[in-house]
Amino acid sequence: MEEKESIQDQKFDHTVSEIHEYETIRHRRRRMLPRAALVGVASGALASLFGLVLSWGDDLRANLLNWAHQWPAAGWLVPVVFCGLGTAAAVFLVINKAPETSGSGIPHLKAVLHRFRTLSWKRVLPVKFISGTLALGSGLLLGREGPTVQMGGAVGDAVAEGLKLHPKERRTMIAAGAGAGLAAAFNAPLSGLTFVLEEVQRDFQPVVFTCAFMAAVTANITARFFRGSSPVFSIPSYPTPPLLSLPLFALLGIAAGLLGVLFNRGLIGMLDLFSKLRGKNALIAAASVGGIVGLITWFNPQLTGSGHELAEDALAGGLVLGAIPAFYLIRFALTIASYGTGVAGGIFAPLLVLGALMGLGIGQAANYFLPALVPQPAVFAVVGMAALFTGIVRAPLTGIFLIIEMTGNYDQMLPLLVACFFAYDIADLLKDMPIYEALMERDLSRNGIHAQLQIPTILEIEIEEGAPFDGKRVKSLGLPPGCVIASITQDGLEVVPTAQTRLESSMKITAVIDPEAADSVAILHSGCKTP
Question: Is the pTM of this model over 0.85?
Answer without folding.
Answer: no
